[in-house]
Design a protein that fits this description.
Blueprint: E1 2-10, H1 16-33, E2 35-51, E3 54-66, H2 72-83, E4 87-94, H3 127-131
Antiparallel strand pairs: 1-3, 1-4, 2-3
Helix pairs in contact: 1-2
């Protein structure tokens, strides 16, 4: 048996019942042809970059096992999720044996605050002074 992760990003603009239907169809397909190990709903989260002008997505993670010679489930999921409206992105990853369980997601809410960079204490001369020719003490009367 091989262990896989399916990360699914659903469109936040899709109706709630449509997103639930997509999740139910994915879970049903996995249970028919493989063994569902875990289903994790991570909720609405900010994504790293916009996809189709959407800054957020609903994250769902499915872990499942399939027999070594069964690629039909992977092909079916790939084909179905590519053409399903309401799916922004998905990724199926084969895990190595002994891989740790998925991490617990951080609490959704306020995005992490970016700490301001400390100001430098050294003063920098204005550009015009820096470009002026150097005057030695001996040249000055």
């Amino acid at each position: 048996m091989r262990l896989y992760d399916l990360m699914l990003l659903l469109d936040p603009n899709a109706p709630d019942d449509r997103r639930a239907e997509i999740a139910q169809n994915v879970q049903g397909a996995i249970e028919r042809s493989g063994t569902l190990v875990g289903a994790h709903e991570w909720g609405m989260r900010r994504i790293a970059y916009e996809i189709d002008h959407r800054a957020d997505a609903e994250y769902r993670l499915y872990q499942f096992e399939t027999p070594d010679d069964n690629h039909e489930l992977l092909e079916q999921l790939d084909h179905t999720l590519k053409i399903t409206d309401g799916v922004l992105r998905f990724r199926i990853i084969r895990l190595k044996p002994g891989s740790p369980p998925p991490p617990t997601p951080r609490q959704a809410g306020r995005p992490r605050e970016i700490a301001p960079e400390p100001e430098e204490t050294a003063t920098v001369a204005p550009r015009s002074v820096a470009d002026a020719p150097r005057v030695d003490d001996e040249d000055v009367d």
